[in-house]
Description:
Mean pLDDT of chain A is about 95; it is low at about 1-5. In chain A, a hairpin with a 5-residue loop joins strand 13 (about 325-330) and strand 14. The first copy, chain A, has helices at about 20-30, 35-45, 60-70, 90-100, 110-125, 135-145, 160-170, 185-210, 225-235, 245-255, 265, 285-290, 310-315, 345-350, 355-375, 390-400, 410-420, and strands at about 50-55, 75-80, 105, 130, 155, 175-180, 215-220, 240-245, 260, 270-275, 295-300, 320-325, 325-330, 335-340, 385. By secondary structure, chain A is α/β, with parallel strands linked by helices. In chain A, the strands form 2 sheets. Chain A has an 8-stranded mixed β-sheet, with helices on one face. A 7-stranded parallel β-sheet of chain A has the order 3-2-1-4-5-6-15, sandwiched between helices. The interface of A and D includes residues 28, 294 and 404 of A.
Amino acid sequence: MVATPIKAKYDIKDISLAPKGKQRIDWAGREMPVLRQIQERFAKEQPFAGIRIAACCHVTTETAHLAIALKAGGADAVLIASNPLSTQDDVAACLVADYGIPVYAIKGEDNATYNRHVQTALDHKPNIIIDDGSDVVATLIKERQHQIGDLIGTTEETTTGIVRLLAMLKDKVLTFPAVNVNDADTKHFFDNRYGTGQSTLDGIIRATNVLLAGKSVVVAGYGWCGKGVAMRARGLGSSVIVTEIDPVRAIEAAMDGFRVMPMAQAAAEGDIFITVTGNKHVIRPEHFEVMKDGAMVCNSGHFDIEIDLKSLGAKATEVKEVRNFTQKYSLPSGKSIVVLGEGRLINLAAAEGHPSAVMDMSFANQALACEYLVKNKGKLAPGIYNIPKELDQEIASLKLKAMGISIDTLTAEQEEYINSWTMGT
Amino acid sequence: MVATPIKAKYDIKDISLAPKGKQRIDWAGREMPVLRQIQERFAKEQPFAGIRIAACCHVTTETAHLAIALKAGGADAVLIASNPLSTQDDVAACLVADYGIPVYAIKGEDNATYNRHVQTALDHKPNIIIDDGSDVVATLIKERQHQIGDLIGTTEETTTGIVRLLAMLKDKVLTFPAVNVNDADTKHFFDNRYGTGQSTLDGIIRATNVLLAGKSVVVAGYGWCGKGVAMRARGLGSSVIVTEIDPVRAIEAAMDGFRVMPMAQAAAEGDIFITVTGNKHVIRPEHFEVMKDGAMVCNSGHFDIEIDLKSLGAKATEVKEVRNFTQKYSLPSGKSIVVLGEGRLINLAAAEGHPSAVMDMSFANQALACEYLVKNKGKLAPGIYNIPKELDQEIASLKLKAMGISIDTLTAEQEEYINSWTMGT
Amino acid sequence: MVATPIKAKYDIKDISLAPKGKQRIDWAGREMPVLRQIQERFAKEQPFAGIRIAACCHVTTETAHLAIALKAGGADAVLIASNPLSTQDDVAACLVADYGIPVYAIKGEDNATYNRHVQTALDHKPNIIIDDGSDVVATLIKERQHQIGDLIGTTEETTTGIVRLLAMLKDKVLTFPAVNVNDADTKHFFDNRYGTGQSTLDGIIRATNVLLAGKSVVVAGYGWCGKGVAMRARGLGSSVIVTEIDPVRAIEAAMDGFRVMPMAQAAAEGDIFITVTGNKHVIRPEHFEVMKDGAMVCNSGHFDIEIDLKSLGAKATEVKEVRNFTQKYSLPSGKSIVVLGEGRLINLAAAEGHPSAVMDMSFANQALACEYLVKNKGKLAPGIYNIPKELDQEIASLKLKAMGISIDTLTAEQEEYINSWTMGT
Amino acid sequence: MVATPIKAKYDIKDISLAPKGKQRIDWAGREMPVLRQIQERFAKEQPFAGIRIAACCHVTTETAHLAIALKAGGADAVLIASNPLSTQDDVAACLVADYGIPVYAIKGEDNATYNRHVQTALDHKPNIIIDDGSDVVATLIKERQHQIGDLIGTTEETTTGIVRLLAMLKDKVLTFPAVNVNDADTKHFFDNRYGTGQSTLDGIIRATNVLLAGKSVVVAGYGWCGKGVAMRARGLGSSVIVTEIDPVRAIEAAMDGFRVMPMAQAAAEGDIFITVTGNKHVIRPEHFEVMKDGAMVCNSGHFDIEIDLKSLGAKATEVKEVRNFTQKYSLPSGKSIVVLGEGRLINLAAAEGHPSAVMDMSFANQALACEYLVKNKGKLAPGIYNIPKELDQEIASLKLKAMGISIDTLTAEQEEYINSWTMGT
């Protein structure tokens, strides 16, 4: 290979962290058999030869495997962080040093740096944008209309990003195809539910070391992520309260055995609050006011706006770091509120993000979505496209096989039966 | 009203059971506040004045409330059983005696009687068919094409029925509108999952009085019904195995903590087998052969074809009733297999079907779907229509209120936020 | 054998129910392999030759197997009901007709009849009393001191009965040996927890057919029975509140994820109340007053005094049967309270009591306890004796084997290790 | 206070870690209200004035509070590590620097250092030994009989240590009183179950970041610790297999819904193995041989002998660190086994040990047990003593209050009822 890693431009914390990153990336690969098979095929077929890709993702050991797979497939890819707190600096170092992939991401970077990295991603003149929350796409539309001609399309893997793309579509500014990776069954069923579920509680435990058993945990939002978080909080012995704005989900939560009530009421009961709504200011001054002394609040939704920390900070008489990723806001009333991970995704801030086993499927979807865009270049009208059902089923089958699980197949008789309406009782 | 109850034609077990039926219907009404409100509105608005409705349903206390609501709305309705074993004879008696609704349904009726009742329903020349499994509609298409002109449309509430309607659509024989009640969120999330879940286990316990704790339970199918059954079997202390043909559902079951394997392997491990697939011969001779002595098999899917009882019966040296709804098939090997509820829906055969609280929402959907068909008479092309999202949300809201649960509403700021794509990190 | 069944004296509902009783007793036997092995040994060894036994038990299919085993061992046994509502009349009929065992028990018998049957049991001049709640023993002490000389000892299998025996011991009126069957691990771990757990919820569902999912269930008492009931209510989708008087159990309930609060507070939140405390008036007027309209109350503790129904009845403007085993008490406030099973053990009143699989172990303990008393006749000082550990382990091993489960055994190295203190880190 | 912290002798990693230790110790204190109240009383009453205490514990933030409480009560205390891997170096530093408590403990210390520290503890000539696994007591008996005269008594808080004390008692070498803290309800119910449960899974996740959902987890041992581990593994979505040697516990595990089988069979099925038996070589060569490639093994029992790592290491072709606390043993067959935390307590090696909330009660028991020994100096015969029931209840009541939970108290009528045997049905 001609590319010489050391010449790669990058903006990372410390390149000497590469060996530790390598070790951790290798470890993650162990649980990512689906993406590995795709990478092997890409290496042979070179679907991305001559294609520039800008990927905006949480820079984790799992993302590393996606980036490596794209590069193996011939892509000229750059990687930036989709969140100022989620970067794993050793992973960034390894991608630069060992794989020659330009990375622009530093854990704890300030907003100015974050925004500069978004610009760097666009400076790469991407043909494909892999986005996570739609920040790169939104910036492209707002500031670089002239580059849209370069774009084959974008892929998006968060609920939040899809909501924004739908708003762009309504406003008629989405003038290129976008693939909705989030709604692939092999993505949202697993990543959002089991991934967010485990890793959110993991983040809370690492940040605080509190016993979950016997605690009252309030989960705001009962979408796929909220379902996962509520299920795991209960699995660790907490009594869980769910808040919702959607009546169907609210009944679902109730019938799953959780208590359902408005946040105004839950605020007074909870020991730990977790927001996963995709919305803004779900916990706000009126709620802080009635919380117990020492109540903990954190967020596992995409953006750091679900908890109104600005208002909280404005009122606080002191903000003090009491453990890593754990800040105590003292209030004039004498009460304090403990904020975890600065209100950013707690699973990435205080833990290691989603386990590899789920990201394997999510990133397999990303990789295949990129290939799909390239294969269909010029054929797709502007709009939002779902992952084709067949890809979804194929990913699931590869995964099952890797898990060592066999399942049934239809007999000829059954095949005929379910395609017929004439056989009855 | 002119109609004199006692003159109603009917074919039921014993009209003297009416008082007990009345008592039980009244009791069920307690948990059906949504349908009650709809009934009250229907009584005022008379949406079904002059409309003939043939309803094919499980004749239970909950169905009684649907029938009463339709009649209150002016309908000229007849009711037949959608399953030979599911009729509650006291309910049938009460509907005839106290409400003047013609019912043709006898618990344990043979297939000839069942088919005759389907014909009776069609003799009523229905403008609307409320179907459950699509038997009435299939018969109409096969045998009474001339009556299709009378039909405004049909509603269907089972997964099985929808699969058949889709096959009819593909075969171009579905020449009228059909409303898919099954896929309303307020139907399948609740009825299929929580309703089937509880009532299936209830049926098994009533039929056998076995302790579920410590038993190995095999659930065939991990759709909404299967999810509910697996969840409740675990909730009662069983170790649950799931079989599937769909890889996505299979991984979902595995990540929910269940073991997943082909039926051929599960057959040797299970103590109790429950089929909820909507397919045919899911348990068949090759499986019976490897089962433990005394293994129990039952079905909670729509039709009684999921277990191949004909083959089992052909092999058996003796078939003996060992408890109500419980038959022991002795096999030449000396082993026996215990069949519950003759392979028909065990929750209706041995217990009382879905609890009223879920049927409240399902039948609210049915009632509103009928009204929707009437209101849109002549405007809907042939095809399958979903329940409009607004009706679904309205039903959920009414239900929540009846459950005494309040939820959050969006603030103006939040409303703006989720409709915008320009605000980012 | 000389005894001619038809001459047996008895007081039962209807001897013609015997065939149905036989069928059900045979079915139960299927899940009672441990007691069956004991019965086979008794039949050979005749440990009870010449011994008169009075057994006061719930007359169920499982008790039938205990009675049959005792008789097989040579006992001259009579059986009375330990609860006016728990008798299964067909079982009583079969024991009389087919096994020649005198039974004095009628479902729904009034208190006078119940007390007369207790006298009949004592008229039998028992050498051994198998008691269930200590009513027979208490009557013996209070009214028939002269018969105490006949007595070898008594066995007791309820928590309630043990509490009473301890009180007798303290009052120095317990002048004979009593075997505490309740505290055998193979009894209370399983019977009280898994047996009471499943059968209590089963009783509630049969009595009401309500959906448990989404309901708020209040469990009073978190002993072994309460743990089982709470676990199963949660397993069926309810949100569970526990009330307790013991602080250790209260924390345990909280850390198991349940909410814990005083009954005065829980009363306003619950949809369904279940008492399992062994104490009196756990739910009383002050609680009824704040309950929701339509709240359901039932009891799964030994005696029917846990709910103060007398006070409730005194206030009620009407008491009406709304379903079998389900009575609605209308209160002057316009609110109503629904009482299940008249406040008696709901699992026996509305369902079939504990499943055979757990009673197998409980009654194996009873049978071996009786044998133990006979073998140690004259050697045991007055007092309360636990089941020897070896019997307990033996029962567990037999049961495991019957369940098809193998477990590990200590290696020689391990055996040495756990008996030594000199090997350390 | 005269004691000048800087003069304290100690053997720790790095005293400059004290500020971080202080921060973390303060944080832990937040969840330890019971011990705090005891400390405040000790500070006033000075129960340990003139008493030398040697404490051998896991040197964690929670232990820090115990040491501080003892010192506040006047004790001349030294602290050593009870396990070479469990020391938190920052805590050790803070205790030395800020509280003047001599600590001898370094994370990762070798066996020679560990043993030297045990000697140092005995050089302190303790009047009371707080032991954790009985290593200090065993060394005293074996090597320093002449010091036994100094000893008032010892306290022990692990199941393992109690087993060893019982063996010492049998061998007649336990010639002083020992208080069994482990069997206090407020200790083993909570610490062993909820503490070990959460922290073991936490340790595994921190060490590996694997997704637990969908994994097959084998738990060896179903005592209080094993129950906690199995419950939490299930709560995180794993399918759990339990191995046992005790038949009663084996049935209990089965009825709790887990699969039960011998380790020889489980070895081939598990993805992750966790030993919590208190015994030796529970996983040994015959089991490694049949494990899946990449199977993970770890231990949460007291000593590092539950997994036979010596044999595994002897066979391995390579042992490689693949993540912190995670080593891959490559076997000649081409398969590898992943060992976490070197087979030492995984919750202390890779995570932070038990959460403060449970240690609060455990260490409250320790503190009160020490006070009990001092108060009863000279009055207790050699032997093993349980914590008095009243202390246990008092701790539970204090804890409940701190959790904000109220419970019921007996009414006068109820008090009378449960003390009487004369009131019956």
